[in-house]
Fold each of these.
Amino acid sequence: MQTAAILSMENITKIYPNGFIANKNVNFELRSGEIHALAGENGAGKSTLMKVLFGEERCEEGRIFYKGKEVKIDSPLGAIKMGIGMVHQHFMLVPSMTVAENMVLGLEPEKAGFLDREEARKRTREVSEKYGLEIDPDARIRDLSVGLKQRVEILKALLRGADILILDEPTAVLTPQETVEIFQELKRLKELGHTVVFISHKLGEIKEICDRITIMRDGRTIDVRMVNEVSEQEISRLMIGRDVLLKTDKTQAKPGGAFLSIRNLNYTDAAGRKILNDINMTVRKGEILGIAGIEGNGQNELSELVTGMKKNRSGQILIDGKDISRKSVREIRELGVSHISQDRMTYGVAADAGVADNIMADRYYRKEFKRGVLLNRKRICRETDQLILEYGVKCDDREQPVRMLSGGNMQKVVVAREFSGDPRLVIANQPTRGIDVGAAEFVHKKLLELRDKRAAILLISADLTEIINLSDSIVVLHDGAVAAYFEDAKTIDPVELGEYMLGIKKMSREQTGGAVHEQ
Amino acid sequence: MNSKTIEKRFDVIRTILAVIIALLIALAVIVIVSDDPMNALYNFLIGPVTNARRFANVIELSIPLMFCGLAVSIMFAADQSNMASEGAFYVSCAVTSVIAVLWELPTFLHVIVCLAAGTITGIIIMCIPAVLKAKWQANELVSSLMLNYICLYMGNYIIRTRVLDTSLGITTSLGFKETASLPNLIPGTRLHLGLLFVILAVILCYIMMYHTGLGYAIRTIGQNKNFAKYAGMGVGGVVLLTQVMGGALAGFGGATEMIGMYNRFQYQGLPQYGFDGMLIAIMAKYNPALVPVAAIFLAYIRTGADIMNRTSDVPYEIISVIQSAIIMLVVAKMFLNNLKHKQIVKYSKMQMEKKEAS
């Protein structure tokens, strides 16, 4: 299948306003009709390169050739016109509108100055039939599953005449079942002559559906290969620059008594939607309890209720035997609770503040950091410098604004704050989202260390591999309720887990009762 | 040097350049409208330093500006857009006047009572938008702006019903008691003890903001309220406290101004010090240590414009042109952004090459 290049990017250099060099003289070439994997760790520059191609970011240097001609792409609109479409990791859809309305957004068919809904529906049906991707044009986006939302995004790009389709980590948010489906869709697109860029760092998936692979590391192109000519081991070595353990080594847990007990927990949000429905579970000292589930099934609310950021619930939450319903966030933290939030930029850090200010946020008021009414600068500097060293935060100095750091280093700042000071209960919500493999490995190692120091750990993650590798026991959340409990995470079949996550299967109350332990 | 210092440097350059451009615009306007532009320019730019009395005017004027600048800085640093400094300042002037006119107390005590009353008044006024927000989530920007007009008439009401000097036919109070007056610092000028007060206030505010846990909490809340809450800070309490402090500073400033500069209440409308405080706070980047610099600059061009108004054909209002230009350019985040980005790109490339060479 040796066809000519349809698109090539030459010597692309992109430097972000914070001085971070995301792409250094990167070369990238697409052949017509292939599924091309763009692989690399988080922070390797894959997404940036594709954003440059899609006109979302402007590169400082470099040239782009499309169908033999040099082109300038300075906006997504320009890219779409040329036939390039992109499906982002975070969907760009309006949740309150229907599928058809989203499909025609920006190219609305009009009738007498109003949106012609019938025509919008017709166009949606046409494109859906042409590509064999079934969708209900009248469904509201907010009612669709993640997999279907993604399908809408793909159809949206196709409706706009995309020859080249860029998919940014499309399987990151999908269950195994949905992943199988999207692979079939992509194969069909390929048969119809479309070219697909598949951004991923999941090697198995790349091997399964891609033809060629471009591997990036540290902002550079490392290698371009035919997928059937390289092994997974080789790809991972090229990606990371060294051999990595694909499985985390971990000893058997020796769980003690329950440290966090959740009894009959219900939570209804401000809009009156029932988010959590009669949750019962415990996290024991010295174990990692994993919460598996598709995002938006109550995980974030659960972690915010346990840490006291959200109130107005019914049911009981006991930490170390103490009822926390009347306790403030600080009082709960004083019980030895630490919290990694899933939303790093909103809760995890103050991006404009320096590294030191970010690390001190949960402890600045303590006696040891004060001298009379004043802050003890020397003591604070010593504390932060030591943590920066211990947690390997790469920064110019302790005053550097956190927004200038890479995602992985930012998360290390969060972890340095949350994991130091001997926590007894760690709520880790998506602790490795969007960070590079090295930093993720580091976070995993630290979590296991804390577990072995008898901390109770609640690990919430949408990444199934992470959940299965790291957890000792697993609870599955579906639609705000406990759908399954597995005492031993080692025996779990990912496919079965996926079925519980999707709500295809559900355990009985007696079966999930195992999630509750004595104190 | 690194990206951080490049950013900082551009921050400073941007502010200075904004001031220069604003002045150039003003100069252009003067040259266009004046029959004798050289004379007008001279009086505007050099006027304030041609004799000691005029320079003392600059310093006198900077005192209330500094008080209000500090008040706004503390509240804005916590991301509270409470603009009631103007009203707090005005009402506390009125309350102070009533006490200065009617009460009979020994010298020292009378001054203390005046200052305390002004401070408390300021706190009460400033807390109105704060409480409205905390209780009913009323946007403090809107409520405080509206409140300022209520304050204007509240102040007038207090003066007119309690201590109006009916012989003059305008809103002017009777004369203050001799005992209600701040001592003069330099004979021949109106420089009063308030100058020392405000210097002290600047120092205390600076220490509070950058060397205490409270200041750290204020700045953290200002940068990211969600993060502050997540880390366990008592966001509501700190936010309220910033407004108490802001109100105290504005109110104390009003009282100081009354009994330091005047011997009767004679404002005919809002004196604008509270609004100017915002300009000062923005120029000073909410750093109390820079508030005096910004306040003295503003007082200087004010005094210059006043002298120009009296000695040439250019009216005082030219000052509004300068002020708006400064605000616009200082808050325009993308101003000089391309230049900054180029510098950062150049620096990053240099670093990359250095790393590769080694």
Note: Residues 3-33 of chain B form the longest helix (31 residues).
Amino acid sequence: MTRISRFLDLQDEISDFIGKAISWMSLAMMAVLSYEIAARYLFNSPTSWAHETTTMIYGTFCILAGVYTHRHHGHVRSEAVYHLFPARGRAWLDVITGGIGLVIFAVFFYVVFEFAADSWAKNEHSSKSTWAPPIYPFKSVLPLAVGLMWLQSLSHFIRDLMVALGITEPREEVTEQ
Amino acid sequence: MLELDPLVVTGGMFGCMLLMLILGAPLTWALLTVGVGSAYFLWGPAGLELLAISTFSSMDNFLLVALPMFIFMGLMLQRSGITDDLFDMINKLMGGTPGGLGMGTVIVCALIAAMAGVSGAATVSLGIIALPAMLERGYDKKLATGTIMAGGALGFLIPPSVLMVIYAFLARESVGKLFAAGLMPGLMLAGIYIAYVYIRAKMNPQLAPPISEEERVDFRGKLAALKALILPGALITTVLSFIILGITSPSEASAVGAVGSIICAALYRTLNWQVLKEVMIGTTKLMGMLLWITLAAVFFSKVYIGLGAGMVLEEFIEDTALSPYWVIVAMLACYFILGMFLDDFAIVFITVPLFVPIVDTLGFDTIWFAVLFIISMQSAYLTPPFGYNLFYMRSVAPPSVSIYDLYKAAIPFVCLQIIGLALVVIFPEIALWLPEQIFGRYTLKPLMKKPPFGEVFCF
């Protein structure tokens, strides 16, 4: 039991850490794009790398951000019917949808792992600009994010199952915005 | 691969997705589950490769960089104290006339909408600042809350708008054109709200009394109050002109706006580490949600269209022989109903790939339809049971305002929005005049052009 709760706490901490760490990437995107605009208009020497770099930061930022969002139950859902159920009934619904989610994310992980591995094997480089950076590190973010999403889903699943079985109390309703 | 009737595929996929949504699954989960299930059963394991491609295409897209930037900008400005300053200005300029504060609130909402791309920003910040001020002066609580909620919803129509960026991404439209098309209808709606408050205050001054004599300022005081407009004005002009005039790409302009919002906060002396971290983490949380819906919806649509089911809706419309305008009305009615139960982001992802090709085939302008869609989404924000602005308002309003007061407060403004919507349907020029001026002759597309259905959503 303690081992499970230690996993749950650790998973929350990992997701929170990731959220805080990647949140700085929004500033990085601003910096790169501002540099590009300045280089283009003030110094008349547009860069070849700014747009692709920003896109890569954006992609990494957003896909990993999903893990943080998931940890704080921030993924949009329709609560019209869901809220008609009592707390334990909701927990059972979460167990069902969360369980399906675990299977889906496992499949998802397998698919994107192959996708990234393929890119490494081909030593794939971008063909979007003359800069042509290697693209496999960017694609590797995919399995990382989906894997973390699976772990976070597992953590939610265990918590919901414990509520559903009456082992623990339902979590407080957080209404934040 | 199994050969299935497109109607069965449509019914099956959307039925399963709705079932999962009803069970309380997040939209991303519902879309992924149904997409993965359908792809696997109909194409086998090879079909799942689409999942990786769809995901990567949502990550590897320069246009979408504008989303985190606009969200950052909105969240930063919300905390920057810019609203206090603007409301103070309105108080001095218009407080002396009946209904002045109410009309001024709409103006502040429109200004915030031109700086922030999300709808909650204006509602929350004005709910905190303007609502207590108006209630103190004896404003009718329904009129006061309704004005703020409706004004707050302008955020999606007046550019920059996050919803428009997503629409542009899905329908492969130009962000600049969409932004230009949203500006006039947005100002028109703001004008309608102002006229409404003015008429109500004229008919019954009890509803919206002027501020007391001591609080008013003379002409010089009014002139001095106008300096509150300098910073927001500069920020709005820079970002919008960059995008609409095509000086930079929308993504670059959004980064300029985000940097500008930090500078604004610094000049208002509200910038500190705490605020910056809150804004960054808020952006992270929202973007995580948005990107994961995007990738799931892109995948879902690719599977759906790949299965050849995209024709169903089009054939259905051909069979019923509805006149094109009735099809548009039916779609808008559909938005209105969906808006009661689903989030606007959910609606845009589900319906754009289905509706926009039809609108295009019918010979209507898709930019015009985008504006209609966004106005409908504003009503969605005000209609119970799930109107976001109702919740935002409830969370900041004093206890004397009940959720039922808010429901009643929203009704006249929803009617005004429907009037605005009807005006844009009848006079498409309201939306299309500005893009026409900027991007050249830009008329309704001829009916003869018939693009292959579903192409809109293939990347």
Note: Chain A touches chain B through 61 residues (CB under 8 Å).
